[in-house]
Amino acid sequence: MEDWERALTEGVLPDGHEMRLEHMPWNVTAAMTELEREVMW
Ligand code: HEM
Fold first, then answer.
1. CB-based contacts of 19: which residues, under 8 Å, 6+ apart?
2. Which of 33, 34, 30, 31 has its CA nearest to residue 8?
3. Within 10 A of 29 (CB to CB), how many other CB atoms are there?
4. How confident is the model over 1-41, as pLDDT tens digits?
5. Is the shortest distance between the CB of 23 and ligand 1 below 6 Å?
6. What are 6-10's contacts with CB under 8 Å, separation 24+?
7. What 3-state DSSP class applies to 12?
8. Residue extents of the structural domains in the chain
9. Predicted local confidence at residue 17, as pLDDT
10. φ/ψ bin of 40: left (φ > 0), alpha (ψ from -120 to 50), beta (otherwise)
C-alpha cells in the first residue's frame, strides 16, 4: 500500500523510476483523498 501511495502521490515507483506527469497523470491521483486511492488499491 505504501508503494501504491507513493506512486500515486509522488510519481515514484518502488524501483525508483520517476513517472513523467505527461505520461502518467499522477497529479490527478495525488489530488484524490487517501480513501479514494485506498479503494482503488
Ligand atoms: C485513477 C487513475 C489511475 C491510476 C490509479 C493509475 C495507476 C498507475 C500505476 C500504479 C502505475 C505504475 C505501474 C507500474 O508499476 O509500473 C501507472 C503507470 C502509468 N500510467 Fe497510470 N494510473 C491512472 C491513470 C492513468 C491515465 C489516465 C493514464 C494515461 C492517460 C495513465 C498512464 C500511465 C502510464 C503511461 C504509466 C507508465 C508510466 C511510467 O512507467 O513512466 N494512467 N499508473
1. 7, 11, 12, 13, 26
2. 30
3. 17
4. 899 999 999 999 999 999 999 999 999 999 999 999 999 99
5. yes
6. 8/32, 8/37, 9/37
7. strand
8. 2-40
9. 97
10. alpha
pLDDT at 15: 97
Q: Which three cell numbers stand for residue 19?
A: 513517472
> Of all protein residues, whose CA lies closest to atom 40 belonging to ligand 1?
19
**pTM of structure:** 0.82
Q: Write down how long the chain is.
A: 41
Cα 24 to middle of ligand 1, angstroms? 5
Work out the number of other CB atoms within 10 angstroms of the CB of residue 9: 16
